[in-house]
Design a protein that fits this description.
It is a single chain. The chain has about 190 residues and is mainly beta. It folds into 3 domains: about 60 residues, SH3 type barrels; about 60 residues, OB fold (Dihydrolipoamide Acetyltransferase, E2P); about 55 residues, Nucleic acid-binding proteins (OB fold (Dihydrolipoamide Acetyltransferase, E2P)). It has no helices and 16 strands. It has a 6-stranded antiparallel beta sheet with strand order 1-6-2-3-4-5, with no helix packed on it. A 5-stranded antiparallel beta sheet has the order 9-8-7-10-11, with no helix packed on it. The chain has a 5-stranded antiparallel beta sheet with strand order 14-13-12-15-16, with no helix packed on it. Strand 8 and strand 9 form a beta hairpin. The model has no long low-confidence stretch (mean pLDDT about 90).
Length: about 190
């Protein structure tokens, strides 16, 4: 058990039967009335961000969460299959729990947040940037330069569609930001 005085960014708590991580919090002591804590929390099950106010000193169930390294093996009709990097234990996840799962390549490393008491996998996070090869895009035209702000659609090796600058061609390797699904840079 924890109280609102123990709140810190990244702390995981149980609220309304779901597990939330605290994104932002602020202790408020108004001139009149009791103190309270204003929070912004993200649900680990569905990714929704909610705002809530707790009275100061309220007891909250804190949840112990561990980050564990896994490697993506393959995808089939049963789901996405991963292997723990230290114990070599394999787990299968539904694609809904993995944000931007169409950017997963075989052999890629991910981090999973696991409820250490119940051993439930809460989230699966891709690295911030992944390198992908362009498998198809319309050819660039002479005069298309890096200073151009125009974008075109490109299909990467995993089948995902990303918007890229006009000078990117089929066969180029690019870095993709997995949080925003945006082109970051060309890889040499």
């Amino acid at each position: 058990m924890a109280t609102t005085a123990d709140f810190k960014n990244g702390m995981c708590i149980e609220y309304n039967g779901k597990i939330y991580t605290i994104v932002q919090f602020q202790h408020v002591k108004p001139g009149k009335g009791g103190a309270f804590v204003r929070t912004k929390m993200k649900c680990l099950e569905n990714g929704k961000v909610i705002e809530n106010t707790f009275n100061a000193g309220v007891k909250i169930n804190s949840v112990r969460v561990e980050r564990r390294p896994y490697q993506f093996l393959y995808k089939d009709e049963l789901g996405h299959h991963f292997m723990h990097q230290e114990t070599f234990e394999q787990v299968s996840l539904n694609g809904d729990i993995i944000e931007n799962n169409d950017l997963l390549k075989e052999g890629q490393y991910v981090e999973m947040m696991v409820d250490s008491e119940k051993e439930n996998i809460l989230t699966c996070e891709l690295p911030p940037f992944v390198e992908m090869e362009i498998t198809y895009t319309e050819p660039g035209l002479k005069g298309d330069t890096a200073s151009s702000n125009a974008l075109k659609a490109a299909t990467v090796e995993t089948g995902a569609t990303i918007s890229v600058p006009l000078f990117i061609n089929t066969g180029d390797k690019i870095k993709v930001d997995t949080r925003t699904r945006e082109y970051y840079e060309r890889v040499k």
